[in-house]
C-alpha cells in the first residue's frame, strides 16, 4: 500500500550570483605624477577622430609648407640682387626708375593683380634699390589712353618748339635785313623820345633788393645740390616698363602705336560719334521722363546720384585703328635718328625696355580642382616671378622681336569663355589680336630672363 504522503525531494542549493568580469584597463600611457594631479590616462583617439585630425593636419601642413617655401624663395632672390642695393650713391644721384602698369584680370578685381606684384615682384625691386611709379586701371582702355596721350603731348610740345625756332630764325633774318633798317631803325632815330628821369618813383619788390640771408649775414659756401637720375648717364639701360597682366601689355603696346602713328587731334568721326551718343542719351532721358520712368545712371553720366561727385570721363577711343598703321606716318615731329629723350635727358617711355608678367586667375566652379592645386603650389609661381624680376634688376635686355607680341599669351587660357564672347560682341581691346608695326617695334627693347 502506497504511503499517503511521499517524502519531499531535497532541494538543490542556490548557486551564488556571479558578478560581471571587470573591464580591462584602457590602453594608454599614464604618469604617476599626472595621476596624482587628476590628469586622466593618455590614449589614442578613436578611428573617426584619427581620420579628422589626419585630414586637417595634411591640409594645414600643406598650406604652412607652401607659405614657408614662399618666404625662403623670396629671400633667395632678394639675396641674388642684394649687391645692387648695397651700391653707394652720392647725395646728387638718384636710382633707376621704372614705370609699372597694373590691370585687373577679366571679370575680377584689381587686388588680384596687385597681390602678385606686392608679394613676388616688389620685394626683389626693393632689394635692388630701384624706384618705380605705379599706374593702375579699373576700366579697359585707361592704360592705352594714358600712354597715347603722353606721346601726343610730347609731339605737340616738339611741334611748338619747332614753330618757335622757325619764328626766331625768321625774326633774326629780318633784323639783319635792309628792310628793317629803313622801315624801323631810321624813323626811330629821328622820333626817339627822351628817357625818363632816373629820379622817377619805381616800386621794387623787397625780395629783389635783398634776401633773408643777406639780413642775417649768412653766406653759402656749398652750392645747391641738384640730383641727377641714373637714367641720364646711360640711355641704353635707362628706366624700364613693367606690365602686370596680358591686358595691360596689350594696352601699352597699342597706346605706343596710337601715340606715334595716330593724329595729334581727335578725328572728326570720333567727335561726331560722341555727339551722336550724347544726343541719343538725352533723347532717351527725355522720353523716360515724359513716360514717368526713372532713368538709370550710366557710367558716362556727369553726376553720381549716390555720392554727388562728378564721375570720371569715359575712356577716349583710339585715334587710329590697326588697319591704318601701314598708311600712317611715324611721328614726323620727333627726331627718330637718335634716342628720343625728355628735358632731363632721360629716354621717353617708348624708348625704355618693357616686360610683362602673366596673371594666373581662374574663375568658375569647374576650375576648383585647378585652383586648389595652384593654391598649394604657389611657391612655384614665387620662384618663377623672382627669377623674372632679377632680369629687370640686372638689365638683361635684347631687341624686340615678333615673338614678343605673344608674351604672357598663356594667361588668356584662364580668361572666362563667357567674358571673352561678350568682349568680342562689344569689340573689347583685350580680346582682339595684338597688331604691331615694325617701324615702332624696331625701336623697342624687352627684358629677357633667359639671357
TrEMBL record:
Secretion signal, residue range per the UniProt entry: none
Segments of skewed composition (Pro residues): 1-10
Membrane topology: Single-pass membrane protein
Keyword Nucleotide-binding (UniProt): no
Species name: Suhomyces tanzawaensis NRRL Y-17324
Coiled-coil annotated residue ranges, if any: 147-176
Primary localisation category: mitochondrion
Gene Ontology biological process terms, A to Z: protein transport
Region entry Disordered, spans: 1-30, 281-318
The organism's taxonomic lineage, starting at the top: Eukaryota, Fungi, Dikarya, Ascomycota, Saccharomycotina
GO cellular component, one term: mitochondrial inner membrane
Family: Belongs to the TIM54 family.
Protein name: Mitochondrial import inner membrane translocase subunit TIM54
Alphabetically ordered keywords of this record: Coiled coil, Membrane, Mitochondrion, Mitochondrion inner membrane, Protein transport, Translocation, Transmembrane, Transmembrane helix, Transport
UniProt superkingdom: Eukaryota
Compartments (UniProt record): Mitochondrion inner membrane
Biased composition (Basic and acidic residues): 281-292
Amino acid at each position: 500500500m502506497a504511503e499517503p504522503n511521499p517524502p519531499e525531494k531535497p532541494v538543490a542549493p542556490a548557486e551564488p550570483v556571479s558578478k560581471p568580469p571587470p573591464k580591462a584597463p584602457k590602453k594608454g600611457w599614464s604618469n604617476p605624477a599626472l595621476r596624482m594631479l587628476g590628469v586622466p590616462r593618455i590614449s589614442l583617439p578613436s578611428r573617426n577622430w584619427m581620420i579628422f585630425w589626419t585630414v586637417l593636419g595634411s591640409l594645414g601642413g600643406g598650406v604652412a609648407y607652401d607659405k614657408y617655401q614662399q618666404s625662403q624663395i623670396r629671400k633667395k632672390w632678394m639675396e641674388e640682387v642684394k649687391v645692387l642695393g648695397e651700391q653707394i650713391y652720392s647725395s646728387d644721384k638718384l636710382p633707376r626708375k621704372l614705370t609699372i602698369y597694373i590691370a585687373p584680370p577679366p571679370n575680377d578685381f584689381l587686388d588680384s593683380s596687385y597681390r602678385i606684384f606686392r608679394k613676388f615682384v616688389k620685394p626683389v625691386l626693393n632689394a635692388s634699390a630701384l624706384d618705380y611709379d605705379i599706374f593702375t586701371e579699373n576700366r579697359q582702355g585707361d592704360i592705352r589712353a594714358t600712354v597715347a596721350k603722353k606721346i601726343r603731348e610730347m609731339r605737340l610740345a616738339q611741334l611748338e618748339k619747332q614753330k618757335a625756332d622757325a619764328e626766331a630764325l625768321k625774326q633774326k633774318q629780318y633784323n639783319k635785313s635792309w628792310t628793317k633798317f629803313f622801315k624801323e631803325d631810321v624813323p626811330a632815330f629821328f622820333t626817339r623820345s627822351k628817357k625818363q628821369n632816373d629820379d622817377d618813383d619805381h616800386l621794387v619788390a623787397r625780395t629783389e633788393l635783398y634776401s633773408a640771408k643777406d639780413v642775417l649775414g649768412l653766406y653759402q659756401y656749398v652750392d645747391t645740390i641738384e640730383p641727377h637720375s641714373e637714367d641720364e648717364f646711360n640711355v641704353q639701360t635707362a628706366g624700364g616698363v613693367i606690365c602686370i597682366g596680358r591686358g595691360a601689355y596689350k594696352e601699352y603696346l597699342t597706346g605706343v602705336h596710337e601715340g606715334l602713328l595716330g593724329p595729334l587731334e581727335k578725328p572728326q568721326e570720333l567727335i561726331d560719334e560722341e555727339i551722336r551718343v550724347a544726343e541719343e542719351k538725352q533723347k532717351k532721358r527725355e522720353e523716360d521722363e515724359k513716360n514717368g520712368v526713372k532713368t538709370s545712371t550710366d557710367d558716362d553720366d556727369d553726376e553720381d546720384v549716390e555720392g554727388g561727385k562728378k564721375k570720371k570721363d569715359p575712356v577716349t577711343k583710339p585715334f587710329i585703328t590697326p588697319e591704318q598703321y601701314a598708311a600712317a606716318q611715324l611721328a614726323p615731329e620727333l627726331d627718330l635718328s637718335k634716342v628720343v629723350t625728355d628735358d632731363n635727358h632721360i629716354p621717353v617711355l617708348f624708348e625704355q625696355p618693357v616686360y610683362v608678367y602673366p596673371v594666373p586667375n581662374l574663375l568658375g566652379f569647374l576650375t576648383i580642382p585647378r585652383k586648389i592645386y595652384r593654391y598649394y603650389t604657389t611657391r612655384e609661381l614665387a620662384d618663377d616671378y623672382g627669377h623674372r624680376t632679377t632680369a629687370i634688376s640686372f638689365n638683361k635686355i635684347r631687341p624686340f622681336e615678333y615673338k614678343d607680341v605673344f608674351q604672357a599669351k598663356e594667361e588668356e587660357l584662364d580668361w572666362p569663355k563667357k567674358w571673352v564672347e561678350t568682349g568680342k560682341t562689344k569689340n573689347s581691346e583685350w580680346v582682339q589680336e595684338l597688331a604691331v608695326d615694325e617701324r615702332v617695334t624696331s625701336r623697342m627693347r624687352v627684358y629677357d630672363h633667359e639671357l
